Amino acid sequence: MKYRTFIIATLLITSVGLADSTDALFDQLFGDQLKQVRSTRATDDDAELAARMVDAAGKLDDSPALRKRLFTEGYTLGLRDARKGHAVAIRAAEQLLRRDPGQRAQWENKLLDVYNLAWRQAPRAERAEKQAALVAKLIEVADQRDQ
Questions:
Q1: Rounded distance, CA 26 to CA 102, Å?
Q2: pTM for the full model?
Q3: 6-54: per-residue pLDDT in tens?
Q4: What are phi and psi of 84, to 5 degrees?
């Protein structure tokens, strides 16, 4: 019993250390930029930073925790900008769907949320195209859930 408690305690301490190092590395790489972007009312800088985060995450193979954090932050920032950010948020959610199968339902819902947001916030001339993309994604997700 003591041995199991020791192993569990060691795993918890190790995972906390990994989380701390992931947060520290994220802050080192993007912390200042994220603070700056969040301090402005403009959203185009959010989309640009989101794209850099998603691009960086796609190149990471040795740090799954940092990769997930970058995709998640990229998704969140991308939601703020209708012009370019929604496409970045979609890329991030699709990558998380592929790389985090344990959270599949959560990321499918977030992906549908951004497709819906893109449709609702689209200029009138683009609404039919965005609506068609939303409907296609709804059907795709429903088909996958039925399997």
A1: 23
A2: 0.81
A3: 343 333 334 444 456 888 889 998 999 999 999 999 999 999 999 999 9
A4: -120, -25
